[in-house]
Structure formats: C-alpha cells, structure tokens
Specification:
The protein has 449 residues and is of the alpha/beta class. It contains 13 helices and 16 strands. The protein is 38% helix and 17% strand. The strands form 3 sheets. It has a 7-stranded mixed β-sheet, with helices on both faces. Strands 11, 12, 13, 15 and 16 form a 5-stranded antiparallel β-sheet that branches. A 4-stranded mixed β-sheet has the order 1-2-3-14. Helix 3 packs parallel to helix 10 and helix 12 crosses helix 13. The longest helix is centred in the last third of the chain and has 22 residues. Its cofactor is pyridoxal 5'-phosphate. It comes from Xyrichtys novacula (Pearly razorfish). Belongs to the class-III pyridoxal-phosphate-dependent aminotransferase family.
C-alpha cells in the first residue's frame, strides 16, 4: 500500500518529536527533504535537483540499478544468519583479498565502520596483550564507547582522555608543527610517534596499536606526508604493537590511483589490520575488518567464539560484490583520478584569485579547500566556510559540507560517478560566491572561529 507523503513541515515536526535531537540534520536551519536520488543527484519533494558532493557512502552513485538488481535477486532467494554455510561470504572475501597485500588474508564482516573499528581494537589488544593505543589528534573512529575513547574529536567534548590513550600530532603540512617547507615532514611527524612511545614506556605501559585513518577526514581532508606510515609502523612494531589503517572513509578506489588509500604510502607499506565500511555497500550497512593469519589466530586462541548475526549475510555480500563489479565495469577509479585532478586544478586556480583560500589539497575524489582570514597567520575562516556552504545550497542546489578542527575546510567526497562538468560547475559557483563576498567587502572577525 502506497503511503501518503508528509509535507516537509509535518516531517520536521515529527522528527523533532520522535528522533533524538543529537541526531542532527544537514542544513539544520532549513533542511533539504530528499525523496529520491540517482547517480550524483538528490531530489527534494518539489522535484528540485541537488548536486551531491557529500555522499561518499553512495560510492558508485545513488540507487545504481545494478546494485538494486543484485539486492532484490538475493533477497528473493535467501537472506539468513551468517552462521549458515553460504557461498557469498567466501566469494566476496576472495574478491576483496585480490585488492590487498597478500598478508592481509583473514576477514571478519560486520555492519558498520564503528563495529569494524571496535573489532580491530579487540584484535590488536588480544594479539599484543597490551592495552595502550596511539591515535592522531582530531581523529574520529566511531560512535561506540570504545571508539569515543580513541577519538580526540569526541572525547575532548566528553569525559576526556583515558590513561591508555595517547595522542600524536596530526601530520598536517599546512597548519601542523612541521609544514610544507620542512625537508622531510614524514620522518619528522613519525618521530613524534617514536617520542610518544618512549614516554609510554617510561610510565611502565605498552602499546597495542597505532590507529589512524589513511587520509584523516575529520581532521580536515589531510594527505599524509610520504613515508610517514612506514616509519610509524616500524616504530610501533618495534614496541610490540600493530598498525591499524582505518579505510572506512577512503577505501574502494576513492583516491583513484590505488584501491586503498594506505597504498599511497608506498608498495612496501602494509598495515597489520585494515578496517573498511561506508562505501562497501553503497548505502547498505556493510563493513569489514581484514588482518593477518597471525593476528586472527591469536583472536581464535582466546577460546571465545566471535559471531555477528548480520555481518556477511548473503544479501550484504551480494551487494558488496555488485559494488566491486560496478567500480570495475564503469572504470570509477579512473574517473576519480581524472575528475579529481581536474577539480583540484580548478580549485588551485581559484587559490591564486582569492586570498581567503589558504590551501587546496587532495587526491582522487577526496579533496579539501581550507579557508583562512589571513594567509600568513592561517587563521581559520569558519564563518566564511559556513556562508559558502549555505549559498551553494540555496543559490546553486549544490550540497557541500565542512570539516576540520575549526570547520573551515570545504570537503568534497562525492559519489564516484561525479563528472568533469560537475567539477566545473562547483568551482564556478564557489568562484562567484567568493567574488561576491569580496565585492561587497564582507568582513569576518578572526575571533569568530
């Protein structure tokens, strides 16, 4: 039976009454009510079309017909508890294994990036028999209690830092302690982790894991300096710990040149544990942890069974395989490389025309523009960034969001079908908005960040 559609006002009123207010909407002052989507486009209840630069979850495009077909076909045949023997889970694991270094060969399927990161933490602590974890400043790894504990982005607003959690400087070569003029920022930032390990040992504690996104997202669309991860892994392993790469935001070809963002750190670098999530199911809840046989063996040897009722179910795995098929068939990695480079080049041209643009950075379809009120001081232009986002939505029907410690970075993580024309439109509109602001002499207070 077809339901009558609520008006936008009715939906908002019911949401305020029924849904927790900490579950915030995009554009909370005037939310967009989305009723359908296709590819890189969203449509509201009036039929107005929005260009989506936000939804990295919908990796191969909203409502891709191949994904819908695979979902319906498997749902019509079987979906059951993953503890029954079935082909899909092993076939999907085999497909994923083909994209990874050979030593990453044991898979655990779960339902969300938070579940994946929580399990990765358990694997690391069980294998090493150590408790302490090193994370990057401003990191976010999920909403479970265990992950809030290792997410400075969250715990600084809540109960604070636990004794077993240690925070290393974010390797940000734009506004970090070692910047673009440093001869070897990768080594310099890695040495801060080594110093942190030494401090931990002086306290009589031991490291279980270094836990980091392969490209820090909440930290501000950060591109890690070369050789950073390999050197950190060397130091962490020497201390008896393991290296966990969080690919929940960045995996499955988003960087274009590689399938996984950790591979940007060089062919010889391989994490001990990798977590993946958001884009895996193109909007369906699907996530995974992959690790080595040794780490998986230690987890098995603890004598406690691990099972996940829905993780790796036949429908989820059918969807996961369909996503891989579309990435290959539509050459979406190549598209990310080509369109991402074009987007970054156009934004770099804007950088030369608008002094409020402090930095343009990114790889593939993972791109950020950092806005500043003063290029020399690199003062975050938080209010300006919010103003640009608002105008893009209201005037151009383009959905963009902000990130970074001061919400001063415009971030682009669109569906991978994002086109050259889409990139050109977005940059044209940003250029117009920034020019308008300069013409009207809009002044923003530095203290407002």
């Amino acid at each position: 039976m077809e339901r009558d559609q609520l008006s936008k006002e009715e939906t908002l009123a019911m949401r305020r009454r029924l849904i927790g207010q900490s579950c915030r909407l995009f554009y909370s002052d005037d939310p967009v009510k989305i009723v359908r989507a296709r590819g890189q486009y969203l449509y509201d209840e009036t039929g107005k079309r929005y260009l989506d630069c936000i939804s990295n979850v919908h990796h191969v495009g909203h409502c891709h017909p191949d994904i819908t077909k695979a979902t319906a076909a498997q749902m019509d045949l079987l979906n059951t508890n993953s503890r029954f023997l079935h082909d899909n889970i092993v076939l999907y694991a085999d497909r994923l294994a083909a994209t990874l270094p050979q030593r990453l060969c044991v898979f655990y399927f779960v339902n969300s990036g938070s579940e994946a990161n929580d399990l990765a933490l358990r694997l690391a602590q069980q294998y090493t028999q150590h408790e302490d974890v090193i994370v990057l400043d401003h990191a976010y790894h999920g909403h479970l209690v265990s992950l809030i504990d290792i997410s400075p982005y969250k715990f600084r607003k809540l109960a604070g830092q636990k004794e077993w959690v240690h925070v290393a400087p974010l390797p940000d070569t734009y506004r970090g302690i070692y910047r673009e003029d440093h001869p070897n920022p990768g080594q310099a930032y890695a040495d801060t982790v080594k110093d942190l390990i030494d401090d931990v040992h002086k306290k009589g504690r031991k490291i279980s894991a270094f836990f980091a996104e392969s490209l820090p997202s909440v930290g501000g669309q950060i591109i890690l300096p070369k050789e950073y991860s390999a050197k950190v892994a060397e130091y962490v392993r020497s201390a008896g710990g393991v290296f966990v790469a969080d690919e929940v935001q960045t995996g499955f070809g988003r960087v274009g040149s590689h399938f996984w963002a950790f591979q940007l750190q060089g062919e010889d670098f391989c994490p001990d544990i990798v977590t993946m999530g958001k884009p895996m199911g193109n909007g369906h809840p699907l996530a995974c942890v992959v690790t080595t046989a040794e780490i998986a063996g230690a987890f098995t040897d603890n004598g406690v069974e691990y099972f996940n009722t829905f993780g790796g179910n036949p429908v989820s795995c059918a969807i996961g395989m369909a996503v891989l098929d579309v990435v290959e068939k539509e050459e979406l990695r190549e598209n990310a490389t080509r369109v991402g480079a074009h987007l970054k080049n156009l934004l770099t041209q804007l950088h030369s025309r608008h002094r409020i643009i402090g930095d343009v950075r990114g790889v593939g379809l993972f791109v950020g523009i950092e806005l500043v009120t003063d290029r020399e001081k690199r003062t975050p232009a938080t209010i300006t960034a919010a103003h640009v986002v608002k105008r893009l939505k209201e005037e151009d029907q383009i959905c963009v969001s902000t990130d970074g410690p001061w919400e001063s970075v415009l971030k682009f993580k669109p569906p991978m079908c994002f086109s050259m024309k889409d990139a050109e439109l977005v940059v044209q509109c940003i250029d117009r908005i920034l020019s308008d602001m300069e013409t009207s002499d809009l002044k923003l207070e530095n203290e407002d960040v």
